[in-house]
Every structure is written in structure tokens, then in C-alpha cells.
# Entry
Amino acid sequence: MDRNSVNWTGPLPAVTTPFTKDGAIDEKAFAGNVERMLKEGATGIVAGGCTGEFWALSNAERKRLYAISAEVMKGKGTLIVGTGAVTVDETVDLTNAAEKAGVDGALLVPPYFVKLTDDEIFAHYKDVDARVGLPLAVYNIPGNAVNALLPSLVARLADLDKVVAVKESSGDWNNYYSTFLAVRNKLRVFCGPSSVFGVPAVDLGADGTVDCFPNMWPVGGLDLYFAPKRGDAAKAAEVQAMGRRLTDLCTSGGRTLYPATKAAMDMMGLPGGGVPRRPLRALEGAPLEGLEQGLKQLGLL
# Structure
């Protein structure tokens, strides 16, 4: 397999995982959020990734989320789900469960917490690759995973049979662009922090964007891909500036990204928000008030 084995392209929002008051996955709210974004033009979704709080879900819940996602999508667009885990066996089990559920591909974060060498990371992916059937997207997000997929390592991973894409979410333009140049002929390259530099990434050839902000930024979050693709420079500049401001708002003043995203969705009356899983806490007090004020200043409330 390689980039030509799949047709993944465009904005693939990283969707939230909402929960009911008793802590279960809120399947109705999840479906409502996904259906809204598809109507707004999303070409697919990424479910059960970092935005989807995969790290706070049991493996049984992760597998149920794969099934829910497949039921909602029903071939309406590309469905990629997060199946990464620390051990090879666990990653294989989750990836094969995702294939059985009917998803299009798996997003694999490298093993996290324990610091690994590049050779150890490569060996992990190679072992998984040999035991799964789904097309794989490798996922570089060292701020969360500890282990980084540097351009040279992604180039090695591109030679594995099932690896067809990379989601580059380092937040470092130099690392993103170096990765793009290293593997663009073999892998589909998705810009993770599109709220920060999605427009230049798309202008220079990114296959798509994967970002959390379409959850709370109707249409605009998708235009980080569509505006530059259609050559609308003015709109592209406008949405990129908004993405930067939203990023700053949601990561300052005592706020972190995932609780802020869900709180903003609630303020806007959008499905899929609510309370995050602990150890995250829902925003309250000054951070919540600051978010509301900031969204009003940006014209989103």
C-alpha cells in the first residue's frame, strides 16, 4: 500500500467524544456532531483521537466508538479512528476491531509515556503493520505522546506495507514541512495544527487537514482547507487568523484545548460538547467566563 491505495483528502475534523451524565459515551450527541460537520462539507472524520479523549476510554469503549462511528458515517466520507496504544498486542487488537467495525483506516500514535529510540518506535510500527489489514496513518504529536516521529523516521515508516498517511501534529512548521517533503510521494500528508498553519500547508500541497476546531467553529474550521484550495486568498487569510486567535483563546487563561472545545460547543448549542473525562475538568469560573467573552469578541457567539 501507499498514498495511491486510499482516496483520503480534505478536511477531516478530529471529533469530540461526548459523555452522558452517568459517564457513558453519548451516542446520540456524537452522531449529531458528526452529521452536522458532514453537512457543512467535511470529507470525513477522525474519531477516537486525542480530541476524542481516547486515553480516557477503556478498550471496550474504544471499540464501541469504532462501531458507532461506522454506523453514523455509512460510507458518507472517510472514517479514520485512533487505535494507538503502548503495546503491540493492544494496538493490533484495537486496529483489527476497527477493521471489523468497517472503518477506512487507523490512526496510530506511537507508544507514549516511555521514551523510546527511533529504532524502537520503528520496530513497534513494523510489528503492528505485519499483523493488521487496515491502511494506517502514523501520528506525530510529541507534545502528547513524548515520542516524536521526526521526518527521517516517517520516511522509514513510509516503506511499511500498510502505512499510507501521516498526521503531522508537532505544531512545528519546520518539522511539518520537512516531513511533507520527505514523504509526499509515498504518503498522504495531513496537517494537524491547521488552526495554526493549515492554509500554507494546503497551499504547498497537504492532502488535508485534521483539527479539533470544526467542532466549535462551524464552516470556518473547514475553510482552512477549502479557501486555499479554491484560491480565495482573502478568505484563507481571514480563517487562518481566526484559527490562530481561537488557539490562543483556548490555551490561555487557565484553559486547555479539549475542555475549552467542549465548553464552546455548549455555548453555541452544538451537539458533542459537555463534560470531559477526568482527569480533565469542565471549565468554570474565570476560565469559563473568559472563554465566553473571547468567543463574543471573535464574533462566534
User: Anything to note?
Assistant: The chain has twelve helices and eight strands. Residues 44 and 78 are 4 Å apart (CA to CA). The domain at 3-232 is CATH 3.20.20.70 (TIM Barrel). The first strand starts at residue 10 and ends at 11.
